[in-house]
Specification:
By secondary structure, the protein is α/β, with parallel strands linked by helices. Helices cover 37% and strands 12% of the residues. The chain is built from eight helices and ten strands. The strands form three sheets. A five-stranded parallel β-sheet has the order 7-6-5-2-10. Strands 1-4-3 form a three-stranded parallel β-sheet, with helices on one face.
Amino acid sequence: MLSRMPRNNPSKEWIRFPFYHHVFEDEIRDFERHLSYFRQHGDFISIDDAIAIFESRKNINGRYFCLSFDDGFKNIIDNALPLLRKYRCPAAVFVPTVYIGCDIHREWEKVKAFFYSSRDAYPGPIEFLDWDDCRALRASGMTIGSHTNTHSAPARLTKEEFIRELALSKQRIEDELRAACVHLSCPWGIPGKHFNASDARVVKEAGYRSFLTSMRGPNFTASDPFSVRRDHVIAKWENFQLQYFFSQ
């Protein structure tokens, strides 16, 4: 089992980044169980604070969980936010900006590219957040970050196209929220498949402070903020599955 907040052992002190895509209504109780599990074995930390620790190169001095959500679905504010507030967990929500506020029924021709590209990841179309939702999330202590503009993996784009994706997403979030957008979650996020090392440099040059991937594992002292490891989690997973991924 994980021990809580070990001291003076850098190999056992880390920041883990569990990330979800959705919390459906039948997953709410399980998601609360996850939050309870994480809180028993570490402390919650915001993405701003986590990245600041990496940038400072100071010792992590404990175990921390930095939660996030990809794809910007409405169920985040409907089902996850009340529990995030209850457990004082400052999560980050990464949004593909072109889809925020879309009506999945009236604008199917626009949104179908997203769901077709995700293949069997979802049981069907899922309602997206709108910008008022994003403002409400931010007012509740959550961070809104970029998931590119059209949910496009860098490896499928030219450099110029990727730069445009980053710029459009960053500008839209900042215009809508009147706050800096400095964190980016890479769609799909597998190195060598969905992005290359040079893409992280492009992200930095575009004015972001972090580049979050889908590589599993802990992040230790002086980890690279432009190669952040995250652990994909499904809200209905049992505790033994959480222990399998987070007991390192």
